Amino acid sequence: MAFTVAIDGPAAAGKGTLSKALAAHLGFAHLDTGLLYRAVGAKLLLGVEPLEAAETLTAEDLAADNLRTAEVADAASKVAVIPEVRAALVDFQRAFARRDGGAVLDGRDIGTVICPEAEAKLFVTASPEVRAERRWLELRARDPKVAFDAVLADVRERDERDMNRASAPLKPAEDAVMLDTSDLGIEAALKAAIEIVEARM
Ligand code: C5P
Questions:
Q1: In this structure, how many other beta carbons lie within 10 angstroms of the beta carbon of residue 149?
Q2: Cα distances (Å, whole numbers) of residue 192 to 50, 111, 124, 158, 174
Q3: Strand order across the 120-125 sheet
Q4: Chain-centroid distance, C-alpha 17
Q5: Is 102 helix (H, G, I), strand (E, B) or coil?
Q6: Which residues are documented as binding site?
């Protein structure tokens, strides 16, 4: 039986951690769709044409270990504005969503474009400052010199690009349940998400 949980929201709202924990709780498969755009962005930085990169993505590309860097995130949000790149990634995401046993997909357009028929939809948000702080703590573990202000500027710039692009902009689906994690720890956010999903099962 297929059951799709669509989780959308801006960068560093806690979607990733929440989606992974929710999938584990439900026994569902999990796809972080940002990785697809990051893998295409990483290829762009190597000089590969984005559409070609999107059409030929391999499991190995998705496992590359530079995908979490700020440079690749920036390249990802640039390739993500290209409609042909987005289109090339649709079938893979839809097939994943409808697999037997249930799936949690997190991204920007899962509830609106990829899986408008998803059984459960969440839109996870947090204030830009809270999101920047989370991202900063994460990045600082790898690079102690990274400045908070630079991370905040980056979060705002990426929000701007994600919300204002013509193709599949970041916005809540009409039937999405909003979950603001600004004042919620992961345990509380997970509990809220489980309640929302189980009410639809
Ligand atoms: O979620 P993450 O930060 O890994 O996503 C990287 C970039 O990929 C985002 O800034 C966004 O531009 C793009 N993206 C997207 N649609 C998705 C997931 C990510 O456009 N479903």
A1: 9
A2: 38, 18, 11, 27, 19
A3: 29-32, 103-107, 4-8, 120-125, 177-180
A4: 10
A5: coil
A6: 9-17
Atom of ligand 1 nearest to the CA of 114: 21
Which residues make beta-bridge pairs with 107? 8
Atom of ligand 1 nearest to the CA of 77: 12
Please write the tens of the pLDDT for every residue from 92-143. Answer: 999 999 999 999 999 999 999 999 999 999 999 999 999 999 999 988 998 8
Q: Extract the tokens encoding 79.
A: 């390739």
pLDDT digits (tens, 9 = 90+) for 36-63: 999 999 999 999 999 999 999 999 999 9
pTM: 0.94
Q: State the Cα–Cα distance between residues 132 and 31, nearest whole angstrom.
A: 23
Mutating to test ligand 1, I would choose from 17, 57, 62, 77 the residue with most ligand atoms within 8 A of its C-beta, which is 77
Which residue has tokens 């639809």? 200
Residue 189 Cα distances to 66, 71, 90, 133, 168, angstroms:
28, 29, 28, 17, 26
Find the 76 Cα to ligand 1 centroid distance in Å: 7
Pocket of ligand 1 (CB under 6 A): 11, 33-34, 37-38, 73, 76-77, 80, 107-109, 158, 162
Residue among 46, 19, 12 at smallest CA distance from 111: 19
